[in-house]
Amino acid sequence: MFVQSWDEFAKQAERLYLNDPINCRLCLKYRNEMLILRLTDNHTCLQYKTIYAQDVKKAEKFMSSLLRHMASKEGPEVTKKKN
Amino acid sequence: MLLESDNFLLELTKLFQQQRVKNSGSLSLVMKRYDGQTKPKPKLTKKQRLENKQTPTNAPTTAHDSVEYKCLVRATFGSKKLSTIVSSKDINRFQLAYSNLLKANMDTLKKKAKESKATGQASANANSNVPSSPRMATNAASTSSATNQQKKTPTTPAKKK
């Protein structure tokens, strides 16, 4: 499912991830002049496509918070606010 | 190929360079939470499922509590595959290096979202390394708003090198 706006994607992706952290994965596909982000838990799939550099910054921010959460000790039930 | 995080970043940079040289192909990065389990859980047999229904066990939840999660990062470009596991100890260092690497290498994307057609073409020219003089690019940018030009001029000479 493609999400049009970044804010919507970030919000939904966060919810999806917190719902089931261990089964979620975030895929980035970088092709010539295009970047696709995909977050899926094998049931729902969220995708966001961009060709603009400004979205890279946002995506990178989102990824680092996700990365931090993935490597933390917190279990699935903890709802940590990420910014 | 499972690598240490430093080596992973190094090899990933090489992949980005390869992609740039070839100017084709897609590079994909995957990250997911890693709990030490390398094989997928076997599906329950019918008998086990029936048993589980009768006595719902709390085994999975208790197992999750004690696990210290790590992060598994994979990168694929063509037939080359890299992966690394980052523990929470190294996460700060890795995250900084990783995001810097991504920012540095994902630079073929367009600079601004809301632009007129003319400036979009100008930036496309700059990105595709067409050997046009820098003056031409700046002229094209100057036809648009002045603020755009100020943002654009520092980037264009850097691309030409």
UniProtKB/TrEMBL annotation, chain A:
Keyword terms: Cytoplasm, Ribonucleoprotein, RNA-binding, Signal recognition particle
Span of the signal peptide: none
Limits of the SRP9 domain: 3-70
Domain of life of the native organism: Eukaryota
Claim: Cell wall biogenesis/degradation is one of the keywords in the record: no
Subcellular location: Cytoplasm
A Pfam cross-reference name: SRP9-21
Gene Ontology cellular component annotations, sorted alphabetically: cytosol; signal recognition particle, endoplasmic reticulum targeting
GO MF term list: 7S RNA binding
Record-linked InterPro entries: Signal_recog_particle_SRP9/14, SRP9, SRP9-like, SRP9_dom
GO biological process entries: negative regulation of translational elongation; SRP-dependent cotranslational protein targeting to membrane
UniProt record similarity statement: Belongs to the SRP9 family.
Function summary: Component of the signal recognition particle (SRP) complex, a ribonucleoprotein complex that mediates the cotranslational targeting of secretory and membrane proteins to the endoplasmic reticulum (ER). SRP9 together with SRP14 and the Alu portion of the SRP RNA, constitutes the elongation arrest domain of SRP. The complex of SRP9 and SRP14 is required for SRP RNA binding.
Name of the protein: Signal recognition particle 9 kDa protein
From TrEMBL, chain B:
UniProt keyword terms in alphabetical order: Cytoplasm, Ribonucleoprotein, RNA-binding, Signal recognition particle
InterPro entries named among the record's database cross-references: Signal_recog_particle_SRP14, Signal_recog_particle_SRP9/14
Recorded superkingdom: Eukaryota
Protein's cellular compartments: Cytoplasm
Matches recorded under Pfam families: SRP14
GO molecular function term, any single one: 7S RNA binding
Major place of residence: cytoplasm
A GO CC term assigned to this protein in UniProt: signal recognition particle, endoplasmic reticulum targeting
GO BP terms, alphabetized: SRP-dependent cotranslational protein targeting to membrane
Biased composition (Low complexity): 122-161
Residue ranges, annotated region (Disordered): 32-63, 110-161
Keyword RNA-binding: yes
Ranges annotated as biased composition (Polar residues): 53-63
Record's subunit section: Heterodimer with SRP9; binds RNA as heterodimer. Component of a signal recognition particle (SRP) complex that consists of a 7SL RNA molecule of 300 nucleotides and six protein subunits: SRP72, SRP68, SRP54, SRP19, SRP14 and SRP9.
Known function: Component of the signal recognition particle (SRP) complex, a ribonucleoprotein complex that mediates the cotranslational targeting of secretory and membrane proteins to the endoplasmic reticulum (ER). SRP9 together with SRP14 and the Alu portion of the SRP RNA, constitutes the elongation arrest domain of SRP. The complex of SRP9 and SRP14 is required for SRP RNA binding.
PANTHER family hit by this protein: SIGNAL RECOGNITION PARTICLE 14 KD PROTEIN
Family membership: Belongs to the SRP14 family.
Name of the protein described by the UniProt record: Signal recognition particle 14 kDa protein
Source organism of the structure: Rotaria magnacalcarata
